[in-house]
Design a protein that fits this description.
Radius of gyration: 18 Å
Structural class: alpha/beta
Number of strands: 9
Largest sheet: 9 strands, mixed
Distance between the termini: 32 Å
Number of helices: 12
Helix content: 40-55%
């Protein structure tokens, strides 16, 4: 487990990130002033990373496939209806209990196994190629995800990226306490985290690029010099056209139909909350 860096700004906003120690392996002349920030769900990966993580846990009998299907429907309803602040807060409070008592090493081991089994084949080759272009130009490439930072780090490492910015859970004696350190990495919190990392790494945000599929990430997309809409939802597509941003869509009609449920649950917030209920119920049997 690599050390998670946690930073708090003057306004009290806390963000965390972890490196994969990739920088030393860059072949190109380093460009320390620029970086790229990639959202994960539906931007780099088809569907939601937590959905596939849940599928992997279900296969290991942590809970049932029926639970996963029900969680998917709950998350789809959440995404299609709204993402009001109250809903996010409620989901966050329940989702914090998801990994309570779990050892970090165990979560990372499971994340590595499940990435190789279920997630690797769902990485969008086109988006991954864009990330590799930044790396070849000597720029650092960060994954920005609402998933727990340990899962984000595993995915970033598997993809050869610099590191991950993610949701940081409190840890005691190597296990999760069920409490959060800082903000859920969602919406405006992503922009705050990118700005804090830029301060620490001396990045010029005007030379940085951000990629996302969702209008929820507009704060992150507008805090950098260049924004790219990847497989955009309707709201982001409108914003991209209004701002003259590049739009890249790697989906086909057939692929879109095949991953319809994962696409609908892209934020992963309520999925984590629902998983908590299932694990608690299983623990009580």
């Amino acid at each position: 487990m690599r050390k998670v860096t946690v930073s708090t700004d003057a306004q009290g906003h806390t963000a965390g990130w972890v490196s994969t120690d990739l920088e030393a392996a860059l072949i190109a002349q380093p460009d320390p002033g620029a970086a790229a920030f990639f959202d994960l769900d539906n931007t780099l990966m088809q569907g939601a990373s937590l959905y596939w993580f849940a599928r992997g846990l279900a296969a290991r009998r942590y809970f049932t496939a029926r639970d996963v299907a029900r969680f998917a429907w709950q998350q789809a309803r959440f995404r299609l209806v709204s993402e009001h602040h109250g809903h996010i807060t409620g989901a966050r409070d329940v989702a914090l209990a998801f990994f309570r008592g779990w050892k970090i090493d165990e979560v990372e081991r499971l994340a590595e196994e499940i990435f190789d089994e279920l997630m690797a084949v769902r990485i969008w080759p086109g988006t991954h190629a864009l990330a590799q272009t930044h790396l070849k130009d000597g720029q650092r490439v960060w994954l920005v995800t609402a998933a727990p930072i340990e899962i984000g780090r595993v995915i970033a490492q598997r993809l050869g990226l610099t590191g991950a910015i993610g949701t940081v859970a409190e840890v005691s004696d190597g296990a999760y306490t069920g409490r959060l350190v800082g903000d859920l990495m969602h919406g405006a919190a992503k922009a705050v985290a990118v700005q804090q990392l830029a301060d620490v790494e001396s990045l010029d945000l005007r030379r940085c690029t951000a990629y996302s599929d969702s209008a929820n990430d507009l704060p992150m997309l507008t805090c950098v010099g260049s924004a790219v809409a990847i497989n955009p939802d309707a709201g982001l597509r409108r914003a991209a056209r209004a701002n003259g941003w590049q739009i890249r869509d790697f989906r086909t009609a057939r692929k879109a139909a095949r991953v319809m449920v994962p696409v609908a649950i892209a934020t992963g917030v309520l999925l984590g909350a629902a998983l908590t209920v299932a694990i608690r119920r299983r623990a009580g049997r």
